[in-house]
Design brief:
Layout (H helix, E strand, L loop, with lengths): L9 H7 L27 E9 L2 E8 L5 E5 L7 E8 L4 E7 L7 E6 L6 E2 L7 E7 L5 E7 L5 E8 L5 E8 L6 E9 L5 E8 L3 E8 L4 E4 L6 E7 L5 E8 L2 E8 L6 E4 L8 E4 L6 E5 L8 E5 L5 E5 L5 E8 L2
Antiparallel strand pairs: 1-2, 1-24, 2-3, 4-5, 5-6, 6-7, 8-9, 9-10, 10-11, 12-13, 13-14, 14-15, 16-17, 17-18, 18-19, 20-21, 21-22, 22-23
Length: 325
């Protein structure tokens, strides 16, 4: 099936289609009644799509119609653009991008339809890898690599003045290396920044940088690897992926690292990504349902079952965020 019908007809279609795959992650069968539609029914998902080595685009999925479209780049077919994040203050999508796999990325933003593209960093010798806007839309926190690739830094860019403030710097050649990986979030109250760090290449942990004390703290236990994958839009809590021997399940905790608890035992496979819907009541998971299949988005029907697929099945999808309706 090459395109979705409106969501109001999705359940009927899924129930009647003989070609619908009801296998769960790793090929386990799902009961027919687990194919459910999320009660959240508005807004747009923005995400990055991996085409092939070094080639990414930024796309959207309309939640109501299921229609997908590429919003960046519009003229070229291949460019290295990563980690889209929607700024609710300016109504713009922030991301990092470069023109080739081997160049340096800058921090960009655009409207939700891909217009009015702005380069906010315009550096030639620094590779900005991820960026996340502040709650007030006046700054972005970002990670970058020094020209010699010896250090990785966590910094803040003031979008009004252009001033940069370095928060952390790590030498990731040293044995006690720590480096930021995959995702980056700013707390709703503006006081904390959350990121993932790999310690000595063994366990991945969730870190909080306190902007008031200028100190960072490890929030997760060291018995397993954890990734922060989303921040709640309605509460002061984080959504985490816990990795145990190749299995990825979802956990939540508060900003201080307390009350760590499981929210879903659905195995996300190798995707390591999920997000709450904007009302905070449902979860969308990025799931590799079978080995060698690409990552796609699915509504999690409950704490142990996968529901309806969101969007078309095509290339690898990840780094989702929500554009307000």
């Amino acid at each position: 099936m090459k395109k979705l019908i409106p969501f109001v007809l999705s359940l009927l279609f899924i129930a009647c289609s003989p070609d619908h795959d009801q296998d769960g992650p790793n090929g386990t069968d799902l009961p027919a009644d687990s194919i459910a539609i999320t009660p959240y029914n508005s807004g747009i998902i923005v995400y990055e799509e991996f085409l092939d080595h070094g080639h990414y685009t930024i796309n959207t999925i309309d939640w109501v119609t299921g229609i997908e479209k590429k919003i960046f780049p519009l003229e070229a077919d291949s460019i290295y653009c990563r980690f889209p994040r929607f700024d609710r203050a300016s109504k713009r999508v922030f991301f990092t991008s470069r023109n080739s796999y081997y160049g340096n990325s800058d921090i960009f933003s655009m409207t939700s339809n891909g217009s009015d593209i702005r380069n906010h960093s315009q550096t030639t010798d620094v590779n900005e890898t991820m960026a996340c806007p502040s709650p007030d839309g006046k700054s972005v926190v970002f990670t970058s690599e020094t020209p010699d690739r010896e250090f990785i830094t966590l910094s803040i860019l003031n979008l009004v003045s252009g001033e940069q403030q370095e928060l952390l710097r790590w030498n990731y050649i040293e044995p006690d290396t720590r480096y930021v990986d995959k995702y980056l979030f700013w707390s709703r109250d503006g006081n904390s920044i959350f990121f993932n760090a790999n310690i000595t290449g063994i366990k991945n942990s969730v870190q909080r940088f306190d902007l008031n004390t200028k100190k960072y703290t490890t929030l997760t236990p060291d018995n397993n690897s954890y990734y922060v994958t989303n921040i709640s839009p309605t509460e002061d809590k984080l959504l985490l992926c816990r990795i145990v021997t190749g299995s990825c399940s979802l956990y939540a905790m508060d900003y201080a690292g307390n009350n760590l608890h499981a929210v879903s035992n659905v195995n996300l496979g190798n995707a390591v990504e999920a997000a709450w819907t904007p009302d905070g009541k449902s979860i969308i998971g990025c799931i590799q349902r079978k080995p060698m299949e690409s990552f796609q988005y699915y509504y999690l029907a409950n704490d142990h079952q996968v529901g309806q697929q969101i969007g078309e099945t095509k290339n690898v999808k990840f780094s989702l965020d929500w554009i307000d309706p």
